[in-house]
Amino acid sequence: MAKVLLSVFLVLVAVSSSLGKPEKNTVKKEKRIPQTLSRGWGDQLIWAQTYEEALFWARKGNKPLMVIFHLEDCPHSQSMKKVFAEDKEIQRVADEDMIVLNLMYETTDKHLSPDGQYVPRIIFVDPSMTVRADITGRYANRMYAYEPTDAKLLLSNMQKAKKLLKTEL
Fold it and tell me: Nearest Cα to 61, choosing from 99, 92, 32, 95?
């Protein structure tokens, strides 16, 4: 008799505890863990570690690669980083439509410095591993440089890299 009462009691406790909790049917957006690879350019973005890894993900995901060259102690890089990280639309497009890589050193691929090695410099590469030399900033002497006032141009170029990808491939 005691076993039956104990069994009934345990069933009642289990049922009552499940009734007391409301069901959660809402879909929760996955919160990403901030990465140190961002170096302040956007902690919620997924950053590639190396150029080779970035090329792999660009090919696999059929997305353009955006390579940001910068230096930690460069005031121009710092001001561009602040604008890039705070612009919600740039962050959204980078997150949804790009593979992103930021480098504080030069790569051995000379195609990534078609007009010299300077910072900050942003180069786009399509999934076929072609550097998009036609997607440039507004300066003739530093074609791939962007300044904080060029945020709209950068966003436009990011969208252009994605749009050209769909029409050319």
Answer: 99
Asked whether the beta carbons of 123 and 132 are under 8 A apart, the reply is yes
Taking the C-alpha atoms of residue 34 and residue 45, their distance in angstroms, rounded to an integer, is 8
d(CA 69, CA 121): 5
Q: Give the model confidence (pLDDT) of 103-129 as tens digits.
A: 998 877 888 999 988 999 999 999 999
Q: Residues 126-160: pLDDT tens digits?
A: 999 999 999 999 999 999 999 999 999 999 999 99
Closest by Cα among 22, 102, 3, 97 to 58? 97
Amino acid letter, residue 39? R
* Contact assessment for residue 128 and residue 169, using Cβ atoms and an 8 Å cutoff: yes
**What's the first-to-final CA gap in the chain, in angstroms?**
76
Residue pair 169/136 in contact (Cβ under 8 Å)? The answer is no
Q: What is the Cα–Cα distance from 20 to 110, expressed in whole angstroms? A: 64
Show the tokens assigned to 20: 């007391």
